[in-house]
Amino acid sequence: VINPNLKYEKLHVDITKSEYYIICTIDNLKIYCLYLPPTPSLENNLAIQITESIPLSSNVIICRDLNARMGKVTGDSRWNTKETKLCKTIREKGIINWNAKLQYKKYTRINFQVHNNTTENSIVDCFLSSNDLQQPTLTIRDDLAILGSDHKLMTLSFILIDHDVATAYITTFNNQIQEKNLINKLTTYLTYLATIADISSIIIENQQENIDTIEYLTEEFYNTIYYSLNTIITEADYRPKNWKWFWNKSLQGRANFRQACYTRWRKSIGIQSGLWWSRYKAADRDLKKEVKQARTAAYHKFCEKLDDDPTAAIPIVKRIIQSKNKNTHRYTTKEGPQHAVDSMAQYLEGIFDGSNLPKPQNQIIHTTNTTNISNTNTTEPLNTYDFYDCPFTESHIYNAIKRLPNKKSPGSDHITSEMIKPIIDSASTILNHLYRISWITGYTPALWRQSQIVPIYKGAGDQTQPNNYRPISLTSTFRKIMEYCIQDQLYQQTDFINMQQGGFKPKLSAIDHAVVLDELMHRFKTNNNNTPPTVITLDVAKAYDQCPRDTIWNTMHNKNCNPRLLNILKNLFDQVNIQVINGNHQSYNFQPITGVLQGSVLSPQLYSIFINSLPQQLSEIHPVVFGYDSIKNK
Questions:
Q1: Same domain? 411 vs 286
Q2: Once rounded to an integer, what is the mean pLDDT over residues 608-620?
Q3: Are both 272 and 203 inside the same structural domain?
């Protein structure tokens, strides 16, 4: 029962989560109304599990009837087994019992027993919360009978502070980290790996155990984020796709009433038919009138928003223009959208399988070995790895998170940059441990190597042909953070790239090469009696997709790049699982044999390593190279 004078508009009651409680959400406050029947209707262990399943964040209050008595904790005269176990849980989690704090020894239930003409008093109802409340008062009424119940009416009053959602999110996240003891687990495991980092034989021997441990720790990290988000942020009510931009629940209610009147008119006979027709026409007029009012009000609200923040007008207008001009075509086939994503996956799998590349004469692939010969004897003291060459530090990770753009599509883990930035301090610490563990073992979590490809139409050619779509990879945000941290070391380790290769290099762009080309053409024309030069351009088709990664790894190995850097790069790109998504449809998974991911931060530099031999072989004619485009000037 909700007081009709309640002033809060954001109110939602959910009765679908459990048969033992309902959830009432008021703004950012969640109230769990919990009832657990007595034993044997509900076993004690199950009652404990139900109670522990309720998330005890800073914005949660529990009003409960557990049919359990706490004895001295609340001032009751008796106790039972169920409440003994519950008291232990409450004490361990630091939960506040407001009945024990504000109304000690005050009974909440009076049961009249007819057989001996006596009354039994007990304290089975109470209010619980994990955080302290502002100016709380608890009243237990003795003068009211609640719908014939033997329970007394209890009123808990306090000042509702509108906590910032981000603050509650951070608090819940940090509490979950402490409860899972996540940082201690990561620190202990990382310390162990650091002591054996120079003995690759031990790491290789225990690699499967390392993989299982890394996946477990990563899953714990993900579960902490998911739990915090689900606890703090109320699930939104999705609007049907047929709703207009000004549509609201009031209009939907009037539309439903009009439809109900129309249905009753169709099924009515006699005098009732005319009555329901009149009601239908009146409901139709009211709906149309309110639609006009809602459209006008929504438009004025939109204009007021632009007036209040003029800087917001530019992106909004830009978005409106783009929505009218944007090509929303999606790749599809006659057989349907599922067949479309599968056929696109088959097409891309054919490109990534390396069948179009010439067979290399030398099949020997260089492998990395981080074994320190002096430390292979395990009887000698082990030197703990000090991460002197590791690109991962908390400050680097912190800056990498800050660099993440907003409003970008996430990977298969559905974690966006907006979810990480509020918890940047704690997340930097955890990611620093996870990244360093991956740095030593050469293994990254599977979710970071899951790529979801979205086919984007290039804007030219037959829209029914898959080769006219550009495969854009959506990867995990945590992979992007890792790549940002690796990027600087990769640039330093690959300084052997030819100066003629200016693609995606720091402080260089296509304009630099355009200026150089223009100067060369002018000089050629001046030195050859105004004879215009001949310019040949080479555009490599499917450059990123068909790039042989073995060539990149061999080049880096021969140039004495950091073996740990090479190991983690090989894991990030060689062990990728690709899945095509288009709308709500997904294809099967496959592994690419060739290519670097379009959309990866590191892909441009890795491709530059591969293409670096081209300007060397064409050095006699001085080509200008940018990415996968090269220009020859004769």
A1: no
A2: 75
A3: no
